[in-house]
Specification:
62% of the residues lie in helices and 0% in strands. With 232 residues, the protein is mainly alpha-helical. It starts with 31 loop residues before the first helix and ends with a helix.
């Protein structure tokens, strides 16, 4: 699929459209490779909803996010989410079908928020700051995002290790980072450097560093920045 690559600071860039969502009658078992393909690209937001439906969706996703943050994705049940959100369990099922689809919707939602922040949000993460400041802000935000969604991302990565690199979300992140690197280092192989830098954020690597090595967010952010300046 060919797309116009967004220019640095171009909030109106047109990335590839998201694929269609799975039918609500699909089996409960997660299917990480297709699900990762659902991760959106900027400009491909969900279809318009009635105000009350949008509020209910927001409450359900926020409740699921709290449960994941406190007890991990394995603790999420439709009944728990209904209780935590104050929404009827029947409505939760009608909106999301099952726990698997709810978790992927949560990951999708967080990816949309992240993309909106670095594509059109306030500087330095969004347009309007020098490339160096934007790159630092992007890397810091990516550390925070991967840590926050680590368990869901790790489950998907373990089941389909290469699916990440074919998702629309990864393509947009890679293009954004390559453009910033190209602006900072004209003549460099920015496309390759962006891939290598993003490899640091692979869910299994981040799991090893944050859980097994017990490294703090601050140390990870400093390490990624230092890595990009080696022999610079």
């Amino acid at each position: 699929m060919s797309t116009r690559e967004p220019r640095t600071g171009d909030a109106a860039a047109t990335p590839p459209p998201p694929t269609s969502t799975p039918a609500s009658g699909s089996t409960p078992a997660p299917s990480p490779a297709p699900a990762l393909g659902l991760l959106p690209t900027v400009g491909g937001g969900p279809a318009p909803e009635r105000a009350d439906a949008a509020r209910n969706r927001r409450k359900i996703l926020d409740a699921a996010a709290r449960i994941v943050a406190e007890d991990g994705p394995q603790a999420v049940t439709m009944n728990q989410v209904a209780h935590a959100s104050g929404i009827g369990v029947g409505t939760v099922y009608r909106r999301f079908g099952d726990v698997s689809q709810l978790l992927w919707a949560l990951l999708d939602d967080r990816e949309r928020q992240f993309q909106e922040a670095y594509m059109s949000g306030p500087p330095p993460l969004g347009p309007g700051a020098p490339a160096a400041e934007r790159l630092d802000a992007f890397l810091d935000a990516l550390v925070d995002r991967v840590r926050a969604q680590r368990e869901i991302l790790l489950a998907a990565h373990s089941a389909a290790p290469r699916a990440r690199y074919h998702s629309g979300a990864y393509r947009v992140m890679h293009t954004h980072m390559a453009l910033l690197i190209g602006e900072l280092r004209p003549g460099s192989d920015a496309t390759l450097l962006a891939h290598l830098a993003l490899a640091s954020f692979s869910p299994d690597v981040m799991h090893h560093l944050t859980v097994e090595q017990e490294l703090s967010s601050e140390r990870l952010k400093a390490g990624v920045r230092e890595l990009l300046t080696l022999r610079g």
